[in-house]
Amino acid sequence: MERVIVIGSGPAGLTAAVYAARANLRPLVFAGGLYGGQLMLTTEVENYPGFPEGIMGPDLMIRFREQAERFGARIENVDVTAVDFARRPLLVRTCDEQYEAGTVIVATGASALWLDIPGEERLRGRGVSTCATCDGAFFRDKHIVVVGGGDSALEEALFLTRFGRRVTLIHRRDRLRASKIMSDRARSNEKIDMIWNTVVEEVRGDDHVTGLRLRNVADGSTYEFETDALFVAIGHTPNTGVFVGQLDLDERGYIDSPDGSVTNVEGVFVAGDVNDHRYRQAVTAAGAGCRAAMDAEKYLEALEFKMDSLARSSF
Ligand code: NAP
Prior knowledge:
Elements: E1 2-7, H1 11-22, E2 28-30, E3 44-45, E4 55-56, H2 57-70, E5 74-76, E6 80-84, E7 90-94, E8 98-106, E9 110-112, E10 128-129, H3 132-135, E11 143-147, H4 151-160, E12 166-170, H5 180-187, E13 192-195, E14 198-204, E15 211-216, E16 222-226, E17 229-232, E18 236-238, E19 268-270, H6 282-313
Parallel strand pairs: 1-2, 1-8, 2-5, 8-19, 10-17, 11-12, 11-17, 12-13
Antiparallel strand pairs: 3-4, 6-7, 7-8, 9-18, 14-15, 15-16
Helix pairs in contact: 1-2, 1-6, 4-5
The protein binds NADP nicotinamide-adenine-dinucleotide phosphate (NAP).
NADP nicotinamide-adenine-dinucleotide phosphate binds near residues 47, 149, 150, 234 and 235.
């Protein structure tokens, strides 16, 4: 039986792994098919403390992983397919095997949201994307559209100026949600122009994106807009599919934690974006991972003490 299973390998999961490993708990980490979480899809991270020059997201996650492994964390690049938290020990299933554990730390993060409009799914990978780092280089000297008004959208737009001849940001309101520093950078970039009060209603193209149908929400008018690519950057949804019916979720699907990392199930702890729709920063996720591992360690200590006492009293 495992003492700690960590599900997820972004900043929250791998920080939990570092702390649990340093507490000699030999955590088993299910990292998912693609380890590292959302930072694997970003470019430069400028606000993670300790890196005054900035660091590329994937490089930061390689460091997280190396640090966890250095202290004995075992990291498996597989997805968890089901859990049973109603029984003891807790049960975690992957495609091929099942594992029992005294505690589980859930740090499965969040995934990019899509617009859910005609043409979007059909043209994914053919001009429609949620990842500028992955797909930006395909659009050298092309015209690129980014949808969204938050920090992610501006980060994507700024990154895409390295490739595109022009980047148009389309936002549904007349004011950005993004931080001032990112807004200022985007506004002062000559390659970026902005279309306000506008939503994308359809993605056009046969085997690749050739244009969009846009609607101005202020006057209701619709019109065609030529472009070669559409990058969607409108926020995220928590990765909680396997926990439905196992853990309490809030109305948006995030895992409820009434107190710190504690969930409604004893022995199951939560950390990072899967439970945080407010801050969603690498550094807050890492802090939450630390907290979850410390809570798991305390819980195991109490559990093991109770089991020892029971064993002693039965002699
Ligand atoms: P976000 O802050 O929730 O912004 C989402 C944006 O998409 C909003 O502007 C929203 O419009 C728009 N939107 C949502 N649904 C839409 C739809 N169906 N159609 C059109 N537009 C839609 O999400 P985010 O940008 O991913 O950022 C999440 C968090 O990560 C934030 O805390 C952010 O600060 C942080 N972050 C930080 C950095 C950085 O520091 N460099 C980089 C990336 C992310 P409204 O404004 O009208 O709601």
